[in-house]
Amino acid sequence: MPHPIKTPVEGQLPYKFIVAGAMGADFTSDAVDVSLVKDVCLQLSFAGTSPTGTFAVQVSLDNVTYTALSLVDAEGAAWTPAAAGDGTVIINLSPLPYPFLKVFFDRTSGTGALNGWVFGK
Questions:
Q1: CB-side exposure of 44: number of CA atoms within 13 Å?
Q2: Using one digit for the tens of pLDDT, what is the confidence trace for 15-28?
Q3: Three-state DSSP class for 65?
Q4: How many CB atoms lie under 10 A from the CB of residue 18?
């Protein structure tokens, strides 16, 4: 069964697709349709009582089966974006050949609120 989709409308980028997501447990965002853009970036901002864990960007061609992307840093080394207290993570997904994406937060400890924006062109 397809997942709920949030579709940014032209002129609404950046688009806030995570609003106060609860970081007291594992969390998966709604799917975002990014099929009309090639270059995508995410901003994940979090605050609370020491929210700690890792983020994964999941992608899909059919909006049913999602797989985590393998992310690399600017030098090409494997990279796992993480939260450790209050902060912001920027993730560049350029180019992104997948039409749907989600963000998964794998909680380790603490609680907090997660806000996420997607931008593309």
A1: 28
A2: 899 999 999 999 99
A3: coil
A4: 25
